[in-house]
Amino acid sequence: MRIPLSWLREYVELPAELSIEELDRALVNLGIEVESIVDLRETVTGSLVVGEVLEIEELTGFKKPIRFCRVDVGAANGTGEPQEIICGATNFAPGDRVVVILPGGVLPGGFAISARKTYGRISHGMICSARELGIGDDHSGILVLTEDVPAKPGDDARPVIGLDDVVVEVEITPDRGYAMSVRGLARELSHAFDVPFRDPAQLPAPGATATPAYPVRVVDTVGCDRFAARVVRGIDPLAESPRWMRQRLTVAGIRSISLAVDITNYLMLELGQPMHAYDLDALRGELVVRRAVAGERLTTLDGVVRELHPEDLVICDAGLPDSLAGPDGGVPISLAAVMGGESSEVVATTTNVLFEAAHWDPVTVGRTARRHRLFSEAAKRWERGVDPALPLVALERAVTLMTTYGGGTVGDEVLDIDHTTPPGRIVIDADLPARRVGVAYEPERVVELLERVGCAVSRTDARSAAASLAGGRHASGPPTLVVTPPTWRPDLTDPADLIEEVVRLDGYDRVPSVLPLAPPGRGLTPTQRRRRSVSRALAENGFVEVLTHPFVAAEIFDRLGLPADDPRRRTMRVANPLSDTDPLMRTMLLPTLLGALRRNVSRGQRDLALYEIGLVFLPRPEAGEPPKMGVAHRPSDAEFAAADSVLPEQPWHVAAVLTGEVEPTGWWGPGRPAGWADAIEAGRVVLATAGIPEQRIVVRQAAYAPWHPGRCAEFLVDGVTVGYAGELHPAALSALELPARTSAMEIDLDALPVAPVVPAPQISGYPPALIDVALVVDAGVPADEVRRALTDGAGELLESVRLFDVYESAQLGEGRKSLAYKLVFRAPDRTLTGEEAVAARDAAVAEAARRCGAVLRGA
Question: Is it the case that residue 477 has pLDDT exceeding 70?
Answer without folding.
Answer: no
